[in-house]
Amino acid sequence: MAWSGGRPTSERSRSSAFRVRAMRLSTRDERRYDSAEWKDSLVIVQQGSLELETTRGVCHTYRTGSVLCLAELPLQLLRNPGSLQTVLLAISRRH
Length: 95
Known about the structure:
Blueprint: E1 2-4, E2 7-9, H1 14-17, E3 18-25, E4 30-32, E5 41-47, E6 49-54, E7 59-63, E8 67-68, E9 75-79, E10 86-93
Antiparallel strand pairs: 1-2, 3-10, 4-9, 5-8, 5-10, 6-7, 6-9
């Protein structure tokens, strides 16, 4: 891969190499954790905040700009604790 003008360039298009999925959580919304949903994904909190609740009931909060790997973790819930919509981007390789 070469860099041109601050942007990566390659013979393979970025869109063919990676899959990007967006997940939105409304204010105070929560979603059950499913490890398979996050397999091989890098997750970016694009907007808002994300609270992760472990299977032991401990909560951790991540804000805009946080980069996470959510696969195979002892989690039970993903929650939007804030007053703004939370937007997560999950980026994974195409197989």
